[in-house]
Amino acid sequence: METPVHRHGATADPRSGATSRAQAATHENAPGSASERGSGSKRRGMSTTALTLPVAAAALYGLWTAFVDRTSGSSLGHAWLLGLIAAVVSGVLGLALVSVQSTLITEVRALAYGALFGTATGYLYSISHTTGPSILESVRMGVVLGAVMFVVSLYVFRTHRTREPHGEHRPRGARRAQGAHRAHPSH
């Protein structure tokens, strides 16, 4: 059975005693393992859902941008062009975030989602009025909504640790097991 400890190259598993890197490498090349199955149509470690959600969100964001721009007085062609550009940019940024999120610690990942959301909503706020809000109002709105998204993301990531791609950073049992084998440097 492949555990998160084996997947990420750790040298010891607190549940089964010491495990060497050679044993973990042999385990990864076992029949039916991910390295032997091949990548197929999916990219390394990314599910179809992980690719579909940012693309769908980008499409919705592009349509919403076109709608907001059109209702604030722009021509139809300008609104659709702006919506297309917004969809492409937000889609690329969303896919980039999804592809690197498993390498980020919880706080940085929540900050990245907050920054992406805050920037997107601040931009929508800036194009929402015919007279146009000031830059400071748009930045303030983006920062406030980005901070809200940061807090919500952090809450979700911390309360659903089993769903995180990299699992718990330091499980409680592992800390206790390490403390029993070696003395703390301050003693």
TrEMBL record:
Keyword Cell cycle among record annotations: no
Q: Which residues form a coiled coil?
A: none
Q: Where are the transmembrane segments?
A: 47-67, 79-98, 110-127, 139-157
The ranges of region (Disordered) come to 1-45, 163-187
Where is there biased composition of kind Basic residues?
172-187
Its keywords, alphabetically, are: Membrane, Transmembrane, Transmembrane helix
* Listed name of the protein: Integral membrane protein
Source organism per entry reads: Streptomyces chrestomyceticus
